[in-house]
Design brief:
CATH topology: Rossmann fold
Strand content: 5-15%
CATH class: Alpha Beta
Mean pLDDT: 89
Strand order of the largest sheet: 3-2-1-4-8-9
Helix content: 40-55%
Radius of gyration: 26 Å
Shape: globular
Length: 298
């Protein structure tokens, strides 16, 4: 009888220990399963080469842009570290729309096309070590070239979204996270894209179509009049967009920044870009926080 009793106790203890171990193992497996997978990065940077970068109009534009892009390249490097040298296949490049007529600028831009998926480990290590300096120095050259020639070619951001963004900025490979970062003052204008359909425009100008909304109830009137940017597509759910350096052309019309941000946000949402943010110009240290918050969200 004692033997049966002892056997029962031992069997119970073994079952209890085994069951607990199984539960703990299952919990650990669940935690591992919930850990988000680090995605490859496909980062596109669209620069507005309009007169917003003129030292007379906006003396801090060049410095701010370069500091912002330093933050972006450092995030790209951290993604490479998280993935490891063998697995890192990130991509990053600069865009202008339209393509500049200046051959020197186009030559510089070609140096800034980075595709780690086509590199061996040694090449990826070189990218990791040099990318921030590479981008900073070459962007300085681009801005100096533009400023010295006063060739304000402008930026047709509206047409870029209409014609190019899906081909240039979205990878079909779902292991990539597609991010477009736009550095612009928020106003839209290019001579090749000036038209409208009722109250939807391909351009936004302070002393033209924005001017009537510089009033206290601007948001209400914008909604009532359906005023905004002409939307041509709604198939960009695989793209994230961050817009930086929105700035009123006249400090007496700071309300322009509120209006521009509101209209941009609505336009991006209408194109089905779920993760989007539009921020005004600020000190680089503050913008850095915003960039990191956006990029680290997912």
């Amino acid at each position: 009888m004692k033997n049966i009793f002892y056997f029962t106790i031992i069997a119970f203890l073994l079952f209890a220990c085994g069951g607990g171990g199984s539960d703990a193992k299952q919990k650990n497996n669940d935690i591992k399963a919930e850990k988000p997978q680090v995605k490859q990065l496909n980062i596109s940077i669209l620069l507005d080469l309009s007169d917003r970068i003129s030292p007379q109009i906006n003396p801090n534009a060049q410095k701010n842009d370069i500091e912002n892009i330093k933050t972006i390249t450092e995030f790209f490097k951290s993604n490479m570290s998280n993935l490891g040298a063998y697995k890192a296949k990130g991509k990053i490049r600069i865009f202008f729309s339209p393509t500049p007529s200046n051959d020197n600028i186009n030559s510089i831009v070609n140096r800034l096309i980075i595709d780690c998926s086509k590199l061996e480990n040694k090449g990826r290590k070189e990218v990791y070590d040099s990318i921030t300096d590479l981008y900073s120095k070459n962007l300085e050259n681009i801005y100096q070239e533009t400023i010295e020639t006063s060739a304000w070619e402008g930026s047709d951001i509206w047409r870029f979204f209409k014609d190019d963004v899906k081909d240039f900025c979205i990878e079909k490979d779902t292991t990539y996270r597609n991010i477009l970062i736009i550095l612009t003052d928020g106003y839209l204008y290019h001579k090749q894209s000036v038209f409208n359909n009722k109250n939807r425009f391909t351009y936004l100008l302070g002393n033209s179509n924005l001017k009537p909304y510089r009033k206290q109830n601007w948001e209400q009137e914008i909604e009532q009049n359906d005023f905004g940017i002409k939307t041509e597509r709604d198939d960009l759910s695989n793209l994230e967009v961050l817009v930086l350096e929105v700035k009123a052309e006249n400090p007496n019309n700071k309300i322009d920044e509120d209006i521009l941000r509101y209209i941009w946000k609505r336009w991006l949402s209408e194109m089905n870009i779920i993760h989007n943010e539009v921020y005004p110009s600020a000190l680089p240290a503050n913008t850095k926080t915003r960039i990191e918050s956006f990029l680290n969200l997912m």
